[in-house]
Amino acid sequence: MAGSSYDIEHVGDEDSGEYRATVDGKVGKLTWKKRNEGIRVADHTLVPPEIGGQGVAAALVDALIADAKEHGFKIVPQCSYVEHQFDEHPEWGDLRAQ
């Protein structure tokens, strides 16, 4: 159900952080860490089974992509879900770190 709208919270500092979406009291997360200036490694996407299949993970990736566009950083999709989303969205190619 991609395209669903969730309130996404970003917490962290300049070295690491996570995007969080809370649905029915359960929290889905996408975590990242800074590799070097201008590059973030998206290392884990975790969505509890109780809220799986509702587009939560896709919304978390969308929030990361929106921040990359706004703040000018590139992304290493270490997490297999984030990598899959990059493959599904070739228009994001300029945001993928080499």
From TrEMBL:
SUPFAM superfamilies: Acyl-CoA N-acyltransferases (Nat)
Keyword Lyase: no
The keyword Transferase is assigned to this record: yes
Pfam families in alphabetical order: Acetyltransf_CG
InterPro entries named among the record's database cross-references: Acyl_CoA_acyltransferase (IPR016181), Gcn5-rel_NAT (IPR045057), GNAT_YJDJ (IPR031165)
GO-annotated molecular function: transferase activity
N-acetyltransferase domain span: 11-97
Alphabetical keyword list: Transferase
UniProt protein name: N-acetyltransferase
